[in-house]
Amino acid sequence: MTRAAPIQFRRVYDPPEPDDGARVLVDRLWPRGVSKERAHLTLWLKEIAPSAALREWFGHDPEKWAGFQERYQAELSANQAAVVRIVALVEQGPVTLLYGARDTRHNEAVVLAAWLDDHHRR
């Protein structure tokens, strides 16, 4: 595979940046207080988000971060239909993964970006 374009991540509440490329919301739930116009989305790929059970278990607790990463990566490996969609976008150009969590270090977009780097950008 050829070297894919950059993958970034940022909060959906932050204003769009010129270098965002495709803006993909990777949350299962729509973020509160954000209109579809304000989000400037290319795609809402809720199918790639962590399962409801995993999201509830994690609860954005940094103490559970290692377990969350491991479990979410296992979900990603089993979710080829959604993975194919995001990989196709990455192969076309820059992608910004958007999330609603307040925690900028412990969220699904961080895990997804790293997983894509490890599994689909060689």
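(ticket continues) Second input and output from the same batch:
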Amino acid sequence: MSLDVSPALLEQAERGEVDEAMFIDCVRTSLPYAWEMVSSLVTQLKADGGEIADNQVPPPDEQARGQLLRALASDAIRGSLERHFGVRLAFQNCHRVAVFPFGPSADDRLARFTSIRGQLLNQSPQLRDC
């Protein structure tokens, strides 16, 4: 299971619209490693001038790796994280998460990061089975 959904949040979903703030809180508490990764990258992005911030350190264990995969492979979770933090997220391999500011100034950097070339250059034997 990806998220620990409270009965109240599940009831909202069953009735129709869901409060995104409650969903974000569910993501934060269910996927703490992924949340902290994105949060720290957003802080780094702002501190470094807002061009790109990315993580190149593999997760400490399979549980953390799984959290990143669940957070970034889900369109709903990923979209909510992007809206909450006001950034665009990109993902390579099993651990390399990057955040970019919204807007045309970041489009070229995002395109390079998510390109076939960018993916190939991010390969290493240590990441073969991640």
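Agent notes: DSSP finds seven helices and three strands in the chain. The first strand starts at residue 53 and ends at 54. Closing as not reproducible unless the customer responds.
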